[in-house]
Amino acid sequence: MARLFGTDGVRGLANAEITPELAFKMGRAATYYFGKKIKRPVFYIGRDTRISGQMLEVSLAAGICSAGGEAVLLGVMPTPAVAYLTRKHGAQAGVVLSASHNPYPDNGIKFFAGTGYKLPDAVEDQLEQLIEAEPDTMPRPTADGIGFITTKHDLLDEYIEYVIGTVECPLNGLKIVVDCAHGAAYEAAPAALRKLGATVIVLHDSPDGVNINAGCGSTHLEQLQAVVAQHQADLGLAHDGDADRCLAVDETGEIIDGDQIMLICALEMLRQNSLPENTLVVTVMSNLGLHQAVKNAGAKVLVTPVGDRYVLEAMLKHNLVLGGEQSGHIIFSQHSTTGDGVITALKLAAALKQSGKKMSDLAKVMTRFPQLLVNVRVESKEGWDKNDHIAAAIKAGDDELGDNGRILVRASGTESLIRVMAEGPSLPDLERIVGSIADTIRQEQIKD
């Protein structure tokens, strides 16, 4: 049986896979688990703008109350804001209702510990056992033992003030376009940029429950590119649905991905002598050009498997402060316990301001090798890595690229996809190689 918790909580089609009943059980289980050492555990709950968010929010809160906990509803709130507020106010746990960059029919539930960090696998496993236990034997208090709900959306202002304090210079004189993806950043991101003095043009800040990520945000940069060029802005910024990611475009409309953002911020930190061990943490998906640029700057790269949790583990283990993913999920660990798209946006804008250069000049420090990623939808991800035909197709591609490139094939942690990535000097060759591997995966159509 598949594990309930994936790499980023529980995620799936709302009201079919992620049901109110599941949310209720998760609320009960979490309250029982976190209530072992405290009579009335407190949970801070934030959500993105999906139409299913309120349904899951009230169900989760009901489960918490039925087990004697307190549910604090933060309303629409960036994922990193929930982590920050949970930690700051001493709640026992935080909960985020979001499916991040997924389309609006999906939703998800993920927990943060009171420390602001994601739960360890061992804790998730214990919660899963409680959720799936039949019958449910967890206590159901009565009378004044029943829990209650409070609402505190005004705490968003505390988060905004906090992220403003993470940069050391005002942004006066910068014209910035920000795409909020009709998601959780729609209030916080424009407010933070404006409070720092930037002139801000806002896109996609009118969520209606079904337009989150729809042709906008960090997965659809076309309109941001056009508006930056149209308004002759200095920088364009794009968030995903739950605002834990940020991508950018320069003043010419060229895309700046997470690798380039990390490099620009790392180089600024090197200039300020504030990058411990002169080391940046990245995943195996990061472009070879990033590795070359970091080496040319006299710094080092520490490589982890794909996933922000692995990046964070390495950062904490080695006392490093900057790391992330090409997707724009970037962690400044001296400020946040998880990826924070708003902090990333402010740090990038501050680096631009402090440099006195154009964003295109900062981005040119890194030569980006051609990289091609194809997502292959499959019926099941199980067993793909043991399939002989797929292995042969990958080996053929590896043999052709040799030392001039690389191939990485992996299962998505959140969707029914196999991701095929190749990197090398020739894009036409990459298209042919990746196409061959993807076709093989489709032909095999992995079964349970």
Summarize the structure.
This protein has three domains: 10-157, 3-Layer(aba) Sandwich (Alpha-D-Glucose-1,6-Bisphosphate, Chain A, domain 3); 165-363, 3-Layer(aba) Sandwich (Alpha-D-Glucose-1,6-Bisphosphate, Chain A, domain 3), CATH 3.40.120.10; 371-444, TATA-Binding Protein (2-Layer Sandwich).
Set down the secondary structure blueprint:
Layout: E1 10-13, H1 20-34, E2 42-47, H2 53-66, E3 70-76, H3 79-88, E4 93-97, E5 106-113, H4 121-132, E6 148-151, H5 156-164, E7 175-179, H6 188-195, E8 199-203, H7 222-230, E9 235-239, E10 246-249, E11 255-256, H8 258-271, E12 279-283, H9 288-296, E13 300-304, H10 308-318, E14 322-324, E15 330-332, H11 341-355, H12 359-363, E16 371-377, H13 388-401, E17 406-411, E18 417-423, H14 427-444
Parallel strand pairs: 2-3, 2-4, 3-6, 7-8, 7-9, 12-13, 12-14
Antiparallel strand pairs: 1-5, 4-5, 9-10, 10-11, 14-15, 16-18, 17-18
Helix pairs in contact: 1-2, 1-4, 5-6, 8-11, 13-14
Structure description:
The protein has 448 residues and is of the alpha/beta class. It folds into 3 domains: 10-157, Alpha-D-Glucose-1,6-Bisphosphate, Chain A, domain 3 (3-Layer(aba) Sandwich), CATH 3.40.120.10; 165-363, Alpha-D-Glucose-1,6-Bisphosphate, Chain A, domain 3 (3-Layer(aba) Sandwich); 371-444, 2-Layer Sandwich (TATA-Binding Protein). It has helices at 20-34, 53-66, 79-88, 121-132, 156-164, 188-195, 222-230, 258-271, 288-296, 308-318, 341-355, 359-363, 388-401, 427-444; strands spanning 10-13, 42-47, 70-76, 93-97, 106-113, 148-151, 175-179, 199-203, 235-239, 246-249, 255-256, 279-283, 300-304, 322-324, 330-332, 371-377, 406-411, 417-423. The strands form 4 sheets. Strands 1-5-4-2-3-6 form a 6-stranded mixed beta sheet, sandwiched between helices. The protein has a 5-stranded mixed beta sheet with strand order 8-7-9-10-11, sandwiched between helices. Helix 8 (258-271) crosses helix 11 (341-355) and helix 13 packs antiparallel against helix 14.
